[in-house]
Give the backbone structure.
Amino acid sequence: MALKFKYHPDVKRSDLPKIDVKNRDMIKRAIEDRLATQPETYGKPLRKTLKGYWKLRVGDYRIVFKVSSNSILIFGIIHRKEVYKLVKKRIEV
């Protein structure tokens, strides 16, 4: 069974436009090749306040996601310097 991807509205509205084309292509390939096949194998679990969520490292960017039964919810594709504080705000809302 193929996993479905669901994106937080801010991912397409504010995250992706800030990323240059080269990195955007790398991120797209990582999502298609790694997250679509085995998200728990390639991702790392987050701790403390983001427990239950996962991250996938792609260069200087982090993809923060949560795996549910048949879908992957992507909460952020953000540069590593600010990813966790922004994602935490998105999750709390």
Q: What stands out?
A: The mean pLDDT is 94.
